[in-house]
Write a structure and sequence with these properties.
By secondary structure, the protein is mainly β. Helices cover about 5% and strands about 35% of the residues. The protein has 2 domains: about 45 residues, no CATH class; about 110 residues, no CATH class. The longest helix has 7 residues.
Length: about 190
């Protein structure tokens, strides 16, 4: 059965600056950090590097993260075999996000902003990485543009450019829909 996929897009100008990705630490610092990674190839290096700032012991075993005595599942909410397309129409503009989960902690994405004539005004594509400390706080709670209902979402960031691109992917709802929204400092003049 095909899943209906929609997008709830929110442009927020709350991000006032661009941040740089976490620095990579040497092997001796990794030992001091108390982090065990069963298979490093399953996780983006930026995700792992972000964990070094957390003071408790951490183990990454397949799709599970163990922090101290707590165990969390790493969210895999997008299909890995095909891209998901999210589209929203607001103020005579079309916002289109295509995303696919490419690893446990990584999604690839392409965003296009189109005008009423369906011409591409701007686009950006890249790789976004799951926020390393997703287990610390409650997930993001964006609002669905169609239903007005809030939903839980995890944040994925691409800090590789001069401006931050953040995608929040929600878990599947009762009707099989996956929702997403994004934030970007580049289009802060297009805030809705």
């Amino acid at each position: 059965m095909m899943k209906n996929v929609i997008i709830a897009l929110l442009f927020l100008s709350v991000l006032t600056g661009c941040s740089s990705p976490p620095k990579k630490l040497g092997e001796s610092e990794r030992t001091k950090a108390g982090i065990y990674v069963k298979n490093k190839s399953l996780y983006d290096s930026i995700f792992i590097a972000g964990l070094y700032e957390y003071p408790d012991t951490i183990s990454l075993i397949d799709s599970i993260i163990i922090v101290g005595k707590d165990t969390e599942q790493i969210p895999v909410w997008l299909p890995t075999d095909k891209p998901s397309v999210f589209v929203s129409h607001q103020d005579s503009m079309t916002y289109e996000l295509t995303a696919r989960q490419t690893g446990l902690t990584t999604i690839s994405y392409r965003f296009m902003l189109k005008n009423i004539q369906d011409s591409i005004i701007d686009s950006v594509s890249g790789k976004a990485v799951l926020v390393s400390t997703f287990f610390l706080a409650a997930p993001a709670v964006p609002e669905d543009d169609e239903t007005g209902e809030s939903y839980l979402a995890m944040e994925w960031n691409d800090n590789s450019r001069d401006c931050w691109f953040s995608v929040c992917i929600g878990s599947e709802d009762d009707s099989g829909r996956i929702r997403a929204n994004f934030y970007n400092t580049k289009w802060k003049d297009s805030t809705t």
